[in-house]
Amino acid sequence: MMNQLPISDLPDSPDWQSLNETRIELLPEHFQKAARLSQSIHLSEQRWQVYLCALGVLGFEQWFTERAPDLQFQSDRASIWQPAYANLFVAACNIQIGDFKVCLLTSNNLTNQHSIPFAVLDIPDFAAHFYVLMQVEEEEQQVAVSGFMNYKQYLNYQQTERLQVDTDWTYTIPSNWFDSNPDTLLLNLRCLDANAIQLPAKTTVETATTTALQQKLTALTSKLQKQHLSELLTVKEGTTLLSNSDLIDWVYVQTRNTKSLSAQPLINVGFWLRNQIDAVASELGWMLMPFPALSALRSLQDEFDQIRSGLEQNSIHIPSAARGAYRDLECDRGSLRLYAIMWVLSETTENREWTLLIALGSQPQRQMPKTLKLEVRDETQLLFAQSLEDTSKNILYAQVIGNWGERFWVTVTADNEAVFEIIPFGMELQAMT
Asked: 0.70 cut: is pTM over it?
């Protein structure tokens, strides 16, 4: 078992803040993914920080997999990709590298002090073996590792310094707590035994405490959309909240600004039930498909029969009551046709549900991109993500079910370059009256 090398003092010169040998060029898809995430953050002042942190994670993953391809790296479960958590604190906890838990943080490039969410250090669910500071130069489209420390070192520093949690639920931590040598980080991840850094054990919060907090949060519902919880709760209450995943999810549901969502444009599939198309969809080039006989329109017959056949092979049958529309998408390396088909599953007052089927096909006499990726999200999470490496051999489709009034966002990526963000689909029957 190897002991970690001691942290060296950082140079007095501010040159340490400039991008060092760990700098990595960000890719267009990195910015697109970070931007999509930031749209799920309801407090405008926090969106930018979440955006930068997401870029830091994506850049770090690219740098790390190039420097240590033999070590397993998993970041898809990191807290930053979960809007319920990203709305509460800006950090990427629960990244897994081998046996180690790693937390990525965005460094402050202007001062020698950093604001670190207390949750990532003091709450067992988010504590990490290593805390890595990432410097993000968004305008230069680069990121770099600017420092790291481990959890044991944090405890030693805290015992000496007795840091207090600031009013915004962060610790102000000086730069000299962090080792600026990225090679030392890699050395520890390769050679150190994870058991050498003991993480805090999870604790159980009394049910009465959780219930009391939820009652308080319920009374504060009207303020949740406009104020960060650090302005409404004590640090102790914040600890209770951040230790309970159910409460975190509940808060996020309450903070979804349904008023602003309803004001955003959408493709209202409810009109399709009347063989009509709304103005937004029409302006974007959507064309209604002739239902119930999907193949009745000759120009669509051959193309859609291939889609239908592929769906039936996967036990997806389109009912006669279904309605749909299609839109052509163009990119440098090919063309494709996006089909959106919907039908009502239940119209009872207690359980009003509808299904949305998205399928990607070819345009007549046009070459398709070689690879495709299809993603579908609702207001809170990614529901579907799948790639097709050879469009000549299969079809790519997704089917989701939602309540009336629920919305779905569709993203299509062609040949890992062209990204099509589709305005959300929704069933808004009240807009038709």
From this structure: no
Q: What is the mean pLDDT of residues 195-200?
A: 94
Q: How far apart, in whole angstroms, are the C-alpha atoms of residue 345 and residue 400?
A: 12
124 CB-near residues (< 8 Å, 6+ apart): 199, 200, 201, 202, 203, 243
Are 241 and 233 in contact by the 8 Å Cβ rule? The answer is yes
Which residues, at least 6 apart from 6, have a Cβ–Cβ distance to it below 8 Å?
none
Q: Which residue has the tokens 């405008």?
A: 44
Give the SS3 label for residue 245: helix
Q: Is 121 exposed, middle or buried (0-12, 13-18, 19+ CB in 10 A)?
A: buried
Query: CA 224, CA 422: separation in Å to the nearest integer?
Result: 29
With beta carbons less than 8 A apart as the criterion, state whether 112 and 16 touch. no
CB–CB of 85/78 below 8 Å? no
Cα end-to-end distance, the chain, whole Å: 71
Per the CB < 8 A criterion, the answer to whether 360 and 328 are in contact is no
Q: Which amino acid is at 225?
A: Q
Closest alpha carbon to 113 in 248, 258, 237, 10? 10
Q: Distances from the Cα of 6 to the Cαs of 134, 138, 148, 423, in angstroms? A: 20, 31, 12, 52
State the pLDDT at residue 376. 93
Peptide bond before residue 200 is cis, with ω within 30 degrees of 0? no
On the CB side of 306, CA atoms within 13 Å amount to 16
Contacts of 236 (CB under 8 A, 6+ apart): none
List helix spans (H) across 162-220. 182-191, 207-219
The pLDDT value given to residue 54: 95
- The DSSP bridge partners found for residue 106 are 134
Q: Which domains are delineated in the chain?
A: 14-196 (3.40.1350), 207-256 (no CATH), 263-432 (no CATH)
pLDDT value of residue 361: 86
Cβ–Cβ under 8 Å, residues 2 and 191: yes
Beta pairing partners, 347: 352
* Averaged pLDDT, 346-366: 79
Strand partners, 213: none
Q: Is the pLDDT of residue 189 over 90?
A: yes
Alpha helices (H) along 284-422: 298-313
Asked if residues 116 and 181 have their Cβ atoms less than 8 Å apart, the reply is no
Tell me which range, 29-33, 121-125, 249-253, 366-370, is most confidently predicted by mean pLDDT: 121-125
Measured distance CA(260)–CA(240) in Å, rounded = 30
